[in-house]
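Backbone-to-sequence.
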């Protein structure tokens, strides 16, 4: 389906489920962006989940979001259990505004929900010529190092910076070997997951997506990945007033109440310490790209480059929608 037509269809679905027109646009834009950068695990496959949570009244379609100024640089937001896209959109825009005013913007958000791809928000700040960090926590998926029960989410770490070219540097990575959304898509479409990314409920390695969802996902780099997941849980949950320590509810399976996810956005002007940042980042990237390449590698790319190319390529063609997702969209539209 063509991008604009699909975006309008998704927007109508969100309006039908009670969202205001501008909030529905924010949500549709975020979901379509995920598809365009080939992150379908965070795209249309999650549409039904958001709508289900609105129907079950654990997402507030018409939130009264409270924005509290702590200082010219720091803002606290209570999202009133809004859909995460809306809370995060307000949050990153406020962080950008604060940084433009003072040099640094810090925004903490509580009572939010899953907001999709962190890189989507980082890119907004980078387009305004700012350096940015984005943190958000998630439902239990990873066991703390030494434990045999999942507690931390796949808790993504995201960093972005302007470069000397039109292609931003965007590092957006979960701290698990594979993000949970990909496992959910595999479970829904009946596909296997790679070896070495998850254990079943008995602690045995599995390539069965359904067994992985019932078991434990493996963190990157062993105890280091577990530590990073813990760090993100503190930054996005403990600091903001959001849920933490395994208390974030699974958006697909737990409708007993709102998720109360926390988000933390940190933005800063690139020239806080040096006046020649553009030259320095250009030199930094240039040096790395000139390094000798291992066999089979044509060129060294920085985080965000392939994402940019995928977006440009996919923008020119229709978005592929699996049949099972098409059925969801049809049902939600009627």
């Amino acid at each position: 389906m063509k991008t604009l037509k699909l975006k309008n269809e998704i927007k109508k679905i969100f309006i039908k489920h009670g969202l205001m027109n501008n909030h529905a646009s924010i949500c549709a834009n975020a979901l379509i962006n995920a598809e365009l950068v080939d992150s379908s695990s965070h795209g249309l496959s999650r549409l039904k989940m958001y709508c289900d949570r609105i129907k079950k009244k654990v997402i507030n379609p018409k939130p009264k979001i409270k924005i509290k100024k702590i200082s010219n640089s720091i803002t606290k937001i209570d999202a009133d259990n809004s859909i995460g896209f809306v809370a995060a959109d307000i949050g990153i825009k406020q962080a950008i505004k604060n940084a433009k005013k003072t040099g640094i913007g810090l925004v903490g958000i509580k009572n939010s929900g899953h907001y999709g791809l962190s890189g989507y928000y980082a890119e907004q700040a980078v387009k305004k010529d700012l350096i940015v960090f984005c943190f958000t926590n998630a439902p239990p998926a990873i066991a703390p190092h030494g434990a045999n029960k999942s507690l931390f989410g796949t808790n993504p770490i995201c960093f972005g910076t302007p470069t000397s070219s039109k292609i931003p540097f965007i590092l957006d990575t979960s701290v698990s070997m594979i993000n949970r959304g990909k496992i959910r898509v595999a479970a829904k479409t009946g596909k296997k997951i790679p070896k070495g990314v998850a254990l079943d409920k008995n602690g045995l390695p599995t390539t069965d997506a359904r067994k992985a969802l019932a078991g434990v996902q493996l963190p990157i780099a062993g105890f280091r990945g577990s530590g990073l997941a813990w760090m993100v849980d503190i930054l996005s949950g403990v600091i903001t007033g959001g849920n933490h320590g395994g208390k974030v509810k699974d958006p697909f399976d737990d409708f007993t109440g709102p998720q109360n996810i926390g988000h933390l956005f940190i933005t800063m002007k690139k020239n806080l310490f040096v006046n020649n940042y553009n030259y320095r980042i250009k030199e930094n990237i240039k040096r790395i790209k000139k390094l000798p390449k291992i066999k089979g590698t044509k060129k060294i790319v920085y985080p965000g480059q392939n994402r940019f190319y995928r977006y440009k390529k996919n923008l020119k063609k229709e978005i592929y929608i699996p049949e099972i997702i098409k059925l969801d969209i049809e049902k939600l539209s009627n």
